Amino acid sequence: MQGSCIDFEKERPKILEFIGTLEWGAHEKGKIECSSSGKALGWDFFQIYFDPGFVEKLLDLYPEIQKQEGNDVEQRFVLWLKMRMKKAKLEYYLKLKDVPHEAVKGFRLNPDHYRDDNELEKLR
Description:
alpha+beta, four-stranded antiparallel sheet, 18% strand, elongated
């Protein structure tokens, strides 16, 4: 996920401390990386990478993640994390960035759900 703040060098320890509380709550050390991705117009941009296994553990621990308004699990997780950070008085702009999706052209049909001639005869 990507985020932005005013002074990343000052805010990075706060972000890592917050993530540490999530790790402590999950009783698991997640493979998490928080790094700067540049500056523009007075904003510092940063990336936070979460291990998918750690996110799955958080999904089991916090079922309210699934109740967030998002199209997929990743979006719901970002919205939930943003809400939790806001409760901890950490104001960052977080958004999902570069989620790998498989490019699909056309429809995907499951061969197990095809009708055969016998089923068509039953419908007549």
